[in-house]
Predict the 3D structure of the following.
Amino acid sequence: MKSNTKKRLIAFMLCMVLVLSSATSAFADEPQNTDSQSQTEAVAEPAADEATGDEAAVNSSEQQQQEEQQPEQQQQQQQQEQQQPEQQQQEQQQPEQQQPKTEAPTVEAPAEQPAAEEAQPIQQLTYEDDNVKITVDAVESGNIPEGATLSVTPIIKQEITDSMSDEEKTKAEELNDQYDHTEKKLNEKAKDETYDIAGFLAYDITFVDADGNKMEPNGNVKISMDYKKAEIPEEAKKAIDAKQDEQKLDVTVMHLEEDEQGEVKEVVDMVADETKEATVETTETKEVEKAAFVTDSFSTFTITWKYKSTTYFKLTLHHVDEKGNELPTTLSSDATLNYDSDISFSDYVEIIDNYDYKYAKVDKISGKTVTSAVTNGSSGKRAKLTLYNGKDNKVETLSYPATTKNIYLVYTAKSTGSTGGGTIEDTAPHLSHQKYIKKKDGNNYDLTLNVSSKKGTTSSKKKFDIVLIMDTSTSMSNNNKWGNSKTAVNKLIDTLSSQTTVDVNYRLVTFGTTAQIRTNWTTGKTVKSTLSNYSIKEDQGTNYEDGLVKAKEALSSGTRADAEKIIVFLTDGQPAYYKSGTSSAGPGSSTSYELYQHALDAAAKLKCDRIIPVGIGLESVKKYYYDSYSDQQKVPDSATVLLQNVANKVNATTKDTVFNSDSSGSNLSTKFSEIAADIQKFPCKNVTIKDTLSEYVETTANTKLQLRMVKKTTTNDHDTYEDQGKQEILLTDKDLIRSNGKAVSINEKSLGTVKYDSGKKQVTWSLGASYELEDDIYYYITITDVKPTTSAEEKYKTDKAYTDTGDSNTDASADGNYGTMGNANDSSSEKKGFPSNDNTNHNSSVTYTNTKTNKSQTEDYQKPVIQVDVELIEGDLQTSKTAKVDNWDDRTYNITLNASSNYTKITSKEPEPVKIVFVLDTSGSMHFRSSLVPYKTCTTDDLDKKETYYYVLSTDAATMYRVKYSDENWYYIDDSKEGLGEKLTDNKERLYYTTNDANDRFYYLKQAATNFTTQLAQSSPNSEIALVTFNKTATKEFDFKNVGKESAYITATISNMITAGGTYQNKGLDKAYDILTADTNPSNLKRYVVLLTDGCPNGDISYNTIQSSVNNIKTTGSTDNKTKLITVGVGLDETNTGLAEAKKQLKNYADDNMAYNANDASHLNTIFTQILGQTTNSNTPINITGATITDYIDPRFELTEATKKELKDDPNVTISADGMSVTWKNQTINYSTDGTPTWTKTFQVRAKDTFIGDNNVTTNGAKSGITYKVTTKAEYTTKLFPRPTVNVKSQLKVDNNTATIFKADSIPTDKDVLGKLFGGGDVTSYENGTLSETDFKNLIDNKRLTLEWFTDSALTTLITPDEMETITPNDTTSYYLKVTYKTNEPTPESKTNTTKNNTIYISGGDTRSTVAVNKNDDPDDAKSYGIYTINVIKGKIQLTKQLATSSTEDRQFTFTLKKDDTDYLVRWDNVLKAYRPGTADEITNGTATSTITVTVSANKSSGEIAIINLPRGNYKLSENDQTDYAIENVVIGDTTNCWSNNKNITGDTVTFTMGNNTNNTNVIVKDDQNHTWKQDSTDGAGQLGVVTYINENVISNWGIQKTSSTNSNLKLKGARFELKSANNTYIGVSNQNGFVNWYTSYTDENTNTPLMEKMQVGTYTLKEIYAPVGYAKSTETWTVVIKKNGSLKSITSSAGTTIKTNSQTAGTTTITLYQFENTPLYDLPSAGGNGIYLYMIGGILLMFAAAWILYKNKCREVLER
């Protein structure tokens, strides 16, 4: 206890000690008097340690590198290491804190340190190696921490070698990682800037304490870096060499500022940051000498060389043909772009023989088209290049690093002719030549070809597009060079302006250091004005390249296709600059080879007809000093030669020699006058004119050749033509076909020979090899009286179009001296037609030799066209047929036949010029959608809030409203105003419309009017159009304007039309009237007014008012040329009363059936095209007459009686004898302007009763159509009607049927029995709902008719006839037949045609299934099935039990019933009070039996029972054995009506055959007439069997016992009897009991045959044949009557005595024994008594006594023992 107490005390004390010590420890954890500096040191220390370790590794690596480079320094450092063993030991113990061996810090400070609270003096720390000295100065006192030394580690990439130790390798890897990290951060910085990093020098600068821990300055410190030798990284030096321009390099200081975790948070460009006071001093070659900057934190600093990228993107150019084959080129295949630059791919197009540039493609020749490339203002990785197609259409954008693309410049093989649009197709100058045609009477033509050495005529002026490239460098201001240059140019302009045969456009380009296009293509007057206002500027050099580039740009647009392109290049010096992006570059005072090559390349891209280089005092070339000697030699010494070389590079047909004026340019004016004169002349000789007639032109008998010479003179801007003579030659002249031809002589001048090749249809005039064309002389050859060929007429009939368009100026002038255009009777100039000449292979050309170049050249003539004079029929007969349901239940349909003519007669003649005033509706409703379709009749509650709807107030109102849902309300929309209109306040039920067309009516109107203008300008350019718009007011947009000349203005005005409210057609018509009355119509052109409107007149304007305006219109014009009115209605829906009236009125206004209506505004294009044809007579409407129209009725339909009566009243109508076709004869079908039928007939048909009905049923036969002729000369043709489909109501009816069977019979499924309900019959009848056998079979085969049997009226459980046939119903039952007719699927057309009152009728309903109804029911409540009832009749056996005498107690008699010789199990039914067949369960569980029990009640003599519901079969009934009763008789009753064995009863068995009549014939027979099975009861119903069993009393259990006559109790054994009847004999032998056993044979006990059966019925005599031993044989005989089963009827003795009987009972059976006594022969003593039993008892007793004594003795002995 005490020990425990001690232990507890010790534990308590220990706990107290622990508690006290824990508390002490807790107090020890709290900081005690710790200042902020010590806390900071504690936190920073781990990071500092880690950083110091990194620093040591870096410095060590740096040391290794420096040791390799500077062995002396290494030796010194090794000596220092030997002198500092303590430091070395420390380094060995703490390698992570190793100090860099390269640092040599010194502290320049006072010897004594002041107290901490006193101000510290400025400090300075330095670092120095062989390359640089780095000094750190404190900007303010105390900014350098106390005890700090300066640590600098140059970050230099080192190579790791195998000779290094592992430690050295590790340090080198760490230093390399630091270098890579620095480079990465610098590049990341550059990525977001406009420069790239060229190279850098990096230093890790920091303070360290005595332990080597890094320290940060306490404030700003200034770092100065002085390089002992100017340095530059190798990478930056390479960049300078590559760029060849050190000026693009920039040097700065970068600081990789770090966060607290030592991660770089920002890279700061310290030079760019003014607060850093950073400066860098470099040499001219960008080598760094000094750098200085201010910082308040340390990490990595870099001296960084950066440059702006000069090439970020490279486009590889492929010059290819259209199949992608590379073409030979001379220029560079690459285009390079730096930041903020652009190029045009057309600048890189080369002049390739036989090819013309087509377009540029990106990536592949099938890629997207591109025209230019533009880079953004960024460089480095932010740079982007965008490819454009045109100005604003972006195609693709490239971003870093994807900097290359393939561009395919595609060229097409050069073809003859010119395309215009600024593209120069043929650079050769053209000889003045023309071909023109003159149409004569009879559709004959004269073809004229001319040639002249003079360029141009007054009517067909020679066009020149001249680019003046003028040097505006500063030197041009010297010596009046600029003034003389302007004077010379003015002289050129004035000289050309005075000529009436030329048309000159100018474009001015000036170039100094850069070039500018000063004017667009303009007149000389503008150029003179521009030059007069221009002054030479200071500091401008000479940039040939940019001047030539701008010239190419000037020629790239605005040039005229048929103008000669001339460049005049004027300069006073050599090129000193070249184009660099959007700026320029170059030496400025000399020409380098690169600069010279730039000028040549630019010249090579130029394409023109002539280049004229002009110099002013050109001297020798000052070459670029820095070029290599070889490059300098490539630059010409002479500026004149240099300029000539540049001019020669231009792809020009004529390249003039350089004209070098004096140093002031005083003789320039003379030169420019010569230029003006020279460019107009075309000296040539050896001229041959050839013309080949095309396949469409042939000569006539009157054709001849007419050759002429005409002199042209120009006075006062007027050309005069003076004939110099002519020669006419008939084509029949044989000299023409000679090989040398026929000599030509005009005005005594020999002009060569002319010949004609009739096979080629070719005329050739050769003026002679030495003959030179004379100035101002025109040479003509005319082929007179040619005409179109038959093949030309046939081709036009086939193609209904011409193949070509005549070239401009190919119609003869009035005097026939030149080709011109603009006359009303012109037939070729820009007209459609067939070519008059064959231009292939220069077959219509002029060949000549240019005397200047002595080159031969061939130029093709223009291509006039001819027209044929034929008429064509175009169009079609428009037919339609509609079938609309009239009465669905009656199956009647209204058939409407429609037809209209769309035929027009087209003439091959050129359309006539006309004057048309458009009067166009610009009311607000024109913004309705083009086509509206009914949506539904409803309130807004049923509308989709996302859609827009339309409605009219009523059917008689014409104004339509548009509504849209917004902000929980429906609003009106007025398209003539912005935003939504008023709220829809009422929510009435109305018909709403919707549309799927996104475009409104106004859109289609503008489109149609614009297309009309364009087509009219093409087909009839001399036509004129005026425009009036109307809404609530009318505006004359413009008066009549020539559509050929001012189509652009017309279409622009149409495009700018706007809408407003109101529809005042009369105001628009009145404005048109004003235009018409003011028009004098000098050419008496046909005039038309086209009125287009979409509504009824507004306000108080009546149709009478409009009619008055219409009448005014029709009064204008001459007597034989009145103005005609054409009307166009838009959206005039005839279902609306108001709009229908508007449509009617427009039709009344129109002339010549020219009333059009566009239900859908998108049809306006077609209507305007029809108006174009009608007004210009290019097509004329045709009405069809004498047409025969026949409609063949589909065999499933017939005409209604009312229709037959109506049609018979028309004498032109014939109905066929079978009523299956209707024919209208001699009918007229007029032309329809708007597609509205002009012939319409309506009649009614009804579906025949023999047609059961279906969906998508055609109403007419395939041959229904119209037989007609378009013209009287045409053949008959037939246009078939469409075959509209409808849905036809279908109906089927199903019947009931009843069949009778006997129970156990199977259900009859005969075809006709089931078919009586529904099946193929004689005829199909809709009324009766039946199908013919054929229709039935077809529908079954096609699986469109299904017959389904069901076991229940709910039609839920299916059963098949085969399954029914296996069923043997016990009771009357029914089956249900459902007949379904699967109708065809309706089409949208058939549903539309069978819609009435918004109800769509479909045969078979939505399920497309017609179910037959029961024909026996009320139609309004008919069942959808037929009923097949099976009546089951059953058999019955009536059994009666009759007793001879009644019994005092109930007696039961049993019978066995067998069916077909097998026990038939039945059961007593307490309800039915009869036996009935046992059920399956009863049979299974044994409650059914084949035993029939009949009870005869006490004191009754009879009883009866019935066995009912018996199935068909053969039944046998037999009575079972009955105690004390035997069958006396069996009687079959007279009421039995089935077959029985009445006449052949065997024993007591009765046979009945249920289902068969008394003649044993089946009572169920087929009723063919009624298609059923019935019961035939003629010879018995076969259902009832009646039988009576009569029984008499007998003794069933009896026997004979042999007894002694002296003692009846004495039974005698061994007596033998004979029991004999007439048929049977039995032997009886008594046994020990006296009972007689019977045998059929008996010899002795061992040899006998016992009687095993009952004794047979009969009367027997019994006599004793052997007596027992000791007895005398009796002579008495008995008569024994035996009944069924051996029962005893009676026994009588022959002695007449009463026979003794004795009864014995064995179990439940009592046997009556008849005693047959025998008399003994003698008496014997009595036997019996106790005998030996007493002795036995005594013996037993003695034995027991002895045993007992023995037992006692034994017991005693035991006791004694």
